[in-house]
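If you are new to this repository, start here. Below is one unmodified record pulled from the training split, so you can see the exact layout before writing a loader.
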Amino acid sequence: TTILVREVEWVAFDQNQYINDWKRQNREKICAELPKGKRQIVKDCAKEKGMSVSRFIIEALENYYKIDLSD
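And here is the target side for that same chain:
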């Protein structure tokens, strides 16, 4: 009986690189300018609702303008 053994080269998995690659392929960014001090108001409102700023803005757009922004 002969047992064949293959050498396996272990490659380190870079989770940050994987996430960045996935985002680059599947997501887009929008930049908005606000008057000074207003960004904190948006962040605070999102935090009160237990959301990220991105999720807060997406839900506001979906609810107010009836835009489907789902995947």
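Two things worth knowing about this chain: The chain has a mean pLDDT of 93. Residues 7 and 13 are 18 Å apart (CA to CA).
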